[in-house]
Design a protein that fits this description.
eight-stranded antiparallel beta sheet, binds 6-O-phosphono-alpha-D-glucopyranose, 23% strand, 19 helices
Length: 613
């Protein structure tokens, strides 16, 4: 959680940093702050609340060229101005921003207090500023690099940090361990941030740091080193993102922009078709780094993920079992390591994640690896921790997802699992003709999604119609069951309206007790094996005067007879219908949030990258 950014260059640092913070606000948004060097002094501005609050206290006249900034998601210490970063050392020589958690801060803080250093916040982070200053003052050489290195050697925990020094007006030092940090090499200017989104408007040239590495940034040059002071050769490479991809464009919120980007995101996940081999009815995924023989040896697939990524993985497990007849399951990564898991040699694990930084999923990966298992990644963020620690994998290529709640990354994750189902399927029982048919249908989905998105005004009207309701039930069967859960999660997350997703078969085993006159029930009912069964479940709700919104691809008149409202999506084969039914559920959540006046992109209490367990 938390986003950090640093800048050294000719422009007004405060403006550049503010812009960077806005792009990182998804990582935390309970307070923010900026520090820069102005006339040999570190000036600090911090404010509780959204970045807009910080803007009001920044002086216009000070054209500093070197500075650091932070947007916070509180872990240690309440949300207030004092706990906001940057944190200044006791004698004002050093200022730091930190993303991560220092586990041994208590002992270090006591040590510093005994040395007479006064603390101003309740955070774990502040101790870093005091330690750097202490080592700086203590040494004969007064070498800032050495002071940071000595500090890092004392820290136990995770960090992405950037340090600013009063006595070195053209120097920033960054370091990372467990939290992301990336250098942006611009034209005569250098950035350092938790995510390239912070500088993508200025440069696409980026270099991702590895754990336990430092970066020393001076005017127009930067160098990476290990904590043992050995130089690491690292060069900036051009990212494929465009600045436009990380901006809102014509849309009022990132979330709805990202929902509408889904057809293109799906085309990209399919490699614009390049990952598909239509003549062979299969997919080609070179990044798995596995020989055909190894793939054939796989007897079981387990997906590890959290939140929406886990629901995408549940769809994936369904696809793999149906198409490839290989046992597959999706597991809550936060539970995985705490139940002494059995890791078998012939099980292949996939970590599924947008950010590649989710602590629970990373811990689960490490658990599998320690027990001798193989984990591959299905990740969106290039160069992220998961992308680096997995033995291989497949990038989602959804582009930057800024809104806190996932949409296009979710769709991309499902898409990759469909490719895996084809690959594993064709090596096992899937016929060539069926493989070709699935490919045709997959390739056709993006244009069907464009049609589905045209329902947007109708869905907006429905959101208005149901706006007074405080509880919703979402139901689906089979491969639509995880979509029902994801749809309910979206409503909860961005509109704060209570919603639960159930299997429609489970309705009569409990949730039906919640259904009374007017209770809104969102049913996903698509053509296929479970159609008649879901229709039966709709009857059960109707018999209790519940209200039904049906998301369907069927023209069967019984659906519209039973439902109070219908949202139509285009037809496709049953297994791929989730790629279409998902969209109206995202839009329903969005318009409900808009009507309720909720901050769609930054829902309260949530963060996009949950980097704490
Ligand atoms: C957070 C986000 C969710 C996301 C989950 C997993 O809870 O709010 O939208 O699904 O983390 O994130 P990941 O980056 O691993 O996909």
């Amino acid at each position: 959680m938390c986003g950090i950014v640093g800048y050294l260059g000719p422009r007004k640092a405060a403006e550049v940093l503010l812009q960077g913070l806005k792009m990182l606000e998804y990582r935390g948004y309970d307070s923010s702050g900026i520090a820069y060097l102005w006339r040999n002094q570190i000036k600090t501005f911090k404010k509780e609340g959204k970045i807009a609050n910080l803007e009001t206290v920044l002086p216009e006249a000070q054209a500093a060229h070197c500075g650091i900034a932070h947007t916070r998601w509180a872990t240690h210490g309440r949300v207030n101005d004092a706990n906001a970063h940057p944190h200044l050392s006791a004698n004002g020589r050093v200022s730091i921003v930190h993303n991560g958690i220092i586990d041994n801060y208590h002992a270090l803080k006591n040590e510093m207090i005994q040395k007479g250093r006064e603390f101003k916040s309740e955070t774990d982070s502040e101790v870093i500023a005091h330690l750097v200053e202490f080592y700086l003052e203590e040494s004969i050489t007064k070498d800032p690099e050495e002071a940071v290195r000595k500090t890092l050697a004392r820290l136990v925990g995770t960090y992405g940090i950037i340090v600013l020094f009063t006595d070195h007006p053209e120097l920033l030092i960054g370091a990372k361990n467990g939290s992301p940090l990336v250098v942006g090499q611009g034209d005569g200017e250098i950035f350092l941030a938790s995510d390239p989104a912070a500088f993508i408007g200025s440069t696409r040239n980026a270099a991702f740091l590895e754990d336990r590495e430092m970066v020393i940034i001076r005017k127009n040059e930067w160098i990476t080193k290990t904590l043992q002071n050995e130089v690491v050769a690292r060069e900036a490479e051009a990212l494929s993102w465009s600045a436009e991809a990380a901006s809102m464009g014509e849309f009022p919120h990132y979330f709805v922009k990202e929902v509408f980007e889904q057809p293109e995101a799906m085309r990209r996940a399919l490699g614009h078709g390049g990952r598909l081999l239509p003549d062979f009815g299969t997919a080609k995924l070179g990044g798995l780094n596995m020989e055909s023989r190894d793939l054939l040896d796989v007897k079981r697939v387990v997906f590890l993920a959290m939140g929406s990524a886990m629901y995408a993985a549940q769809v994936g497990a369904y696809l793999l079992e149906s198409v490839a007849r290989i046992p597959a399951q999706a597991e809550d990564a936060s539970e995985f390591r705490y139940r002494n898991p059995i890791v078998e040699k012939d099980t292949l694990y996939f970590a599924v994640s947008q950010s590649g930084e989710t602590a629970d999923t990373i811990q689960a990966i490490q658990e599998v690896q320690q027990r001798g298992g193989r984990v591959l990644g299905i990740v969106n963020a290039v160069g992220s921790t998961m992308a680096r620690i997995c033995k291989g994998g497949v990038y989602i290529h959804a582009g930057p997802e800024i809104s806190v709640t996932s949409s296009k990354a979710f769709l991309g994750q499902m898409t990759i699992t469909a490719l895996l189902a084809l690959l594993f399927g064709r090596m096992r029982i899937l016929s060539l003709s069926r493989g070709k048919e699935i490919i045709d249908n997959l390739m056709n989905i993006p244009q069907l999604q464009e049609i589905a998105l045209q329902q947007s005004p109708h869905i907006h009207n429905l959101a208005r119609k149901y706006i007074a309701n405080k509880n919703f039930l979402y139901m689906g069967r089979g491969i639509q069951y995880p979509i029902a859960i994801e749809g309910a999660l979206k409503l909860k997350e961005i509109s704060y309206v209570h919603a639960e997703g159930f299997s429609s078969g489970g309705l009569k085993h409990g949730p039906l007790a919640l259904v009374g006159p007017g209770t809104p029930c969102m049913f996903i009912i698509t053509e296929g094996d479970s159609f008649e069964k879901v229709l039966g479940n709709m009857q059960e709700v109707k018999a209790r005067d519940g209200r039904i919104i049906a998301v369907t691809n069927s023209d069967d008149p019984r659906v519209s007879l039973l439902a109070d409202d219908v949202i139509k999506v285009p037809r496709t084969e049953e297994l791929l219908a989730p790629f279409l039914t998902l969209l109206p559920l995202q839009l329903f959540a969005y318009y409900t949030a808009v009507e309720l006046g909720v901050d769609v992109d930054r829902p309260r209490n949530l963060a996009k990258s949950v980097t704490t367990e």
